[in-house]
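name: query_chain
kind: protein
chains: 1
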Amino acid sequence: MSRGFRTLFYKEILRFQKVVLQTVVAPAITTLLYLLVFSHALEQHVTVFGDITYTAFLVPGLVMMTMIQNAFSNSSSSLIQSKITGNIVFVLLTPLSYVEFYLAFMLAAVARGLVVGLAVYLCAAPFVALPLHSAVTVIAFALAGSAVLGTLGVIAGIWAEKFDQLAGFQNFIILPLSFLSGVFYSIGSLPEFWQHISKLNPFFYMIDGFRYGFIGRSDIDPGVSLAVVTTTFLVLSSLTLMLLRRGYRLRN
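structure:
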């Protein structure tokens, strides 16, 4: 990779490090509040996968949901801010290839997702006896899930021309898909019709596979989940590269 790629990636890392209270601490605290409220309210009333406590079931889902939401926020907010302030032109004038441009934004989004996810996990760990079934599975889904949402954030940042459009993308697509992905429940508890609907949501496979890495139980084969997440990433990254190659809403 060129020096330009490394510089743009470093700039994106510095961007979220400079506002760490907003980009890391705030989402970590919000997630811990979800954990406090839901585990207190449902621990004694909800049984999941037999011998798994509800809190141990909930924590991996919350960690993954936080990672993917922050990966999306990082790349999408950076691009829309650069477009609105006009400084995107200074990046486009450089000899960076569109592949390097994409990778710098996507990898920085993955980095932020992992940092926030690790912060949530470390804060929750003292209060929850959380098993670790497969560290490799946890890392694989953390990287793949963050990469998918980081890429989706690049697409949203390219498409949106004002903050209102980006907020609509986040509120009407990202939030519903992440909240209805089985973070707070097993889809096995749903009626059959809604189980089929849930399986159309790619976020479900990220949550379910990541959770399998901790508790060793899942609603669907983790190999299938990883295949779905990987395919989703390849489709979205191909679309992103096509948009960047054409300069869609960036060079006009």
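note: The CA atoms of residues 49 and 63 lie 19 Å apart.
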